[in-house]
């Protein structure tokens, strides 16, 4: 049974990005407030301002205004972008090197500070340093079976820790001192401060792409065996029942109370409250699905779209109108913290 939980709205049309240059592909995206950054296969970064407009009928549209684009000077794709808004910096991974650039003019920092030898990287959203003018960055190193932790400041970087893993890591998410890692044959939790590690469950990274995503304090979402979306805490236990995905999920995102997943044909929406699949949106050629401060964005090689959640009150009303009282109650109770008090009472 379906619920209309999200609407798919176009944000950046292909013409705005590439004009008639068909060879340009979107490799990665980052969104921070109204700032949308796109990294492409021909080594450019594009900066757009996203303006959300609501019509009198309540229809939401997005107007993207291009600010500037910048060529990074290499013949390699821009593979990852992460914003560190407190530092006004954008961290850019290209050709195994993370460069710090200014969020507004996209110029590299004058000191030339960079992190070399990174396969992929992520930021620690639950940092341990306590310094507001620093972000903690975890990289999977080009060195075999090695993870490195860095502190990144406005114009310098400093290595904090190097950790060796039992097998080659291929994906990582961080929470405090805890790393949730997809290795070649299994997922593990590793405390990089104490070195203590814990096996979660087996997984074959050769057969499909692992997904490791921090979804809250000390909790991660993983693509498990048999097409299951599994939840795991840093203690190695699961406090929620898994959701049933398709076998070939490419990306996952959280927009409470929903888990959104992307495969090669569809975007699927599952409720974390009763694990049921609530919505399916046809979406061909998607290769990126990420959430940024509650905004869920999907992209093909040529365009960027936003999944706009419908107000929870409206979803509850729709369920009641179709006599699905039990589901409406589950949603109302589970999403209570996201609904204004007087509306919840009604």
TrEMBL record:
Q: Is NADP tagged as a keyword?
A: no
Q: Do you know which PROSITE patterns this protein is assigned to?
A: CNH
Q: Which UniProt keywords apply?
A: Cytoplasm, Protein transport, Transport
> Matching Pfam families, A to Z?
CNH
Which stretches make up the CNH domain?
23-296
Q: By what name is this protein known? A: TGFA1 protein
Q: Where in the cell is it found?
A: Cytoplasm
Q: Which domain of life is it from?
A: Eukaryota
Q: Which InterPro entries match?
A: CNH_dom, Vam6/VPS39/TRAP1
Q: Which PANTHER family does this UniProt record tie to the protein?
A: CNH DOMAIN CONTAINING (PTHR12894), TRANSFORMING GROWTH FACTOR-BETA RECEPTOR-ASSOCIATED PROTEIN 1 (PTHR12894:SF27)
